[in-house]
Design goal:
Elements lengths: L3 H20 L4 H10 L6 E6 L6 E6 L5 E4 L2 H6 L3 E2 L5 H7 L12 E5 L2 E4 L8 E2 L2
Antiparallel strand pairs: 1-2, 2-3, 4-5, 5-6, 6-7
Helix pairs in contact: 1-2
Length: 130
């Protein structure tokens, strides 16, 4: 939790760093990481919506300028997704394309027909085949 002005400044800095990473300025490893992870989820503003079983988080992404709904963690697990850190070591190795556990620590996954599927709307790098 930070003040609005700080959050907006961080969001702008993240966009600039992302563009530099994509350009290769920080090296090939950071370029690949930027391509895989994108910008979503770095700095967000959240509000509660609904209650009980209809509870959702209304999330505004300060970096990507997207607005979307997200279930709470228990609701995500009820859909059959498992927190990344609770997956087996083998499953985490199949999903983790950056080599950094912290890049995936707050994500949820389930095994689909075509490989691992990440919870979340419009996640472009969300599928990883085992």
């Amino acid at each position: 939790m930070v003040r609005d002005a700080i959050a907006l400044r961080v969001a702008e800095q993240e966009r600039e760093d992302y563009e530099q990473a994509l350009s290769g300025l920080y090296g090939e490893q950071q370029k690949k990481r930027a391509e895989l992870l994108g910008l979503r989820g770095i700095a967000t503003a959240m509000a509660e919506q609904g209650s009980g079983k209809s509870f959702r988080w209304l999330i505004y992404d300060l970096v990507t300028d997207e607005c979307f709904l997200r279930l709470d963690d228990l609701g995500i697990e009820r859909l059959g997704f498992t927190p990344y850190l609770a997956l087996s070591e083998r499953a985490r190795a199949e999903i983790n394309q950056t080599g950094r556990e912290c890049d995936y620590a707050r994500t949820f996954w389930r095994l689909g027909r075509d490989g691992w599927v990440r919870y979340g709307s419009s996640v472009s790098s969300g599928r990883v085949t085992p």
